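We both want to read C-alpha cells more fluently, so let's practise on a single case. Would you supply a protein for us yourself, any chain you care to pick? Would you write everything just below, so we can both look at the same thing?
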Amino acid sequence: MSDKQTFDEKHNQQQCYEIRLKGHLNERWADWFEGLTITLEEDGDTLLTGPVIDQAALHGLLKKVRDLGMPLVSVRPIEHGQADQSDVK
C-alpha cells in the first residue's frame, strides 16, 4: 500500500512544461493561456512555460494550440526553476 501512496503523491504534483510553437503568438492570447509565461524567441518561435496541474490540463492546453492553428514544435517537462528563468518579451 505504501507504493500506491508514493505513486499518488508523485503524480498529483504540478509539473512545469515548456510548449514550443512555430510563430509568434499575439499578446491578446495571453489570457487564454492563463498562468503560463509567453516568451517570443528571436528565431520566430513562441514558448509557453509554466506549471500544469495534471495531464488533463496539459491536453486542454494542447487543444488550444491546435485551435489557434499554430504548428506545435515540442512539449517537454522542465524543472520548476527553469520555468522561472524565462523572460517575457
Q: What stands out?
A: The radius of gyration is 14 Å. The chain has three helices and four strands.
